[in-house]
Amino acid sequence: MTGREASGAAPAVIVQVDRDRCIGSGMCAATAPGSLALGADGLARPVREQPTGAAGEPLTSELADAVDFCPVEALSLYGVRDGRRIDPTG
Ligand code: SF4
């Protein structure tokens, strides 16, 4: 058993926060509270710990919006299966 994987239409992703970029605006936590929160240090972190190789969580529209709305591009999503960055693209 490798943990939870995408079971429906949503692909499983790993959320990564670049804490050197994060300015603690809280926008991501407000947009996708099921996936992101502000830690005691005032910076964003994934709600569920996601060490490399973890099963990840479903890519919801809220999570995708949080990545897009971050004012300093501190959020990235990686595919669980292949480790490729899927958002932001390019
Ligand atoms: S939206 Fe970006 S800058 Fe704001 S708390 Fe989230 S990761 Fe940090």
UniProtKB/TrEMBL annotation:
Superkingdom to which the source organism belongs: Bacteria
Native organism taxonomy: Bacteria, Bacillati, Actinomycetota, Actinomycetes, Kitasatosporales
Pfam families linked to this entry: Fer4_15
Keywords: 3Fe-4S, Electron transport, Iron, Iron-sulfur, Metal-binding, Transport
Free-text function comment from the UniProt entry: Ferredoxins are iron-sulfur proteins that transfer electrons in a wide variety of metabolic reactions.
Identification of the protein by name: Ferredoxin
Sequence ranges assigned to domain 4Fe-4S ferredoxin-type in this UniProt record: 13-41
Gene3D superfamilies: 3.30.70.20
Cofactor section: [3Fe-4S] cluster
